[in-house]
Input
Amino acid sequence: MSDLAGRLAAVRDGVADAARVADRDPASITTIVVTKFHPASLVRELASLGVRDFGENRHQEAAAKAAELVDLDLTWHFVGQLQGKKARQVRSYARVIHSIDRESLADALASSDSNVDCFVQVNLTDDAARGGVEPANLDALVEHVVATRGLTLLGLMAVAPLGEEPRRAFARVRELSDRIRLTAPDADELSMG
Ligand SMILES: *Cc1c(COP(=O)(O)O)cnc(C)c1O
Output
């Protein structure tokens, strides 16, 4: 087995173990392999090992890889901070946008003729420069996204902050997820990295 195949198998085993411990069906969990800074050739190798879901955080890099690998049936996830002026371009190759953090970005992604799946990103830190909406402004943003044509809200995304145990931080996201479902009952997915 190649080194890459071995590492991928270890990740899959870890996810399956965690699912078992949490009494969850492993099939209900999608592992997104974040390939930023890695070349398209690595994505191709991972695809040959059965990976279909890939994450990228910069438009230029993501667009180039998506174009180079257009012969493969891949699902691209955009997980990075996104400028409004790049929004429509990202929408053209990304099937899921995980980083909606403001109303103007939702507006820039709006469409009357196609849908894109998305997550609202929550900032779990005190640093406003990190991506994500402040929890205090979350409900208003969720309401706005739900009302925006062409966006299907799947749930919440958060990146574990440095200096806090991820499990604790993600427990807060779970609580916020319960809260937003008063506004968006179907948006029950969690994207956590
Ligand atoms: C890189 C990355 C992001 C996005 O990070 P930014 O610094 O906002 O670009 C999100 N989730 C995961 C798992 C990542 O690796």
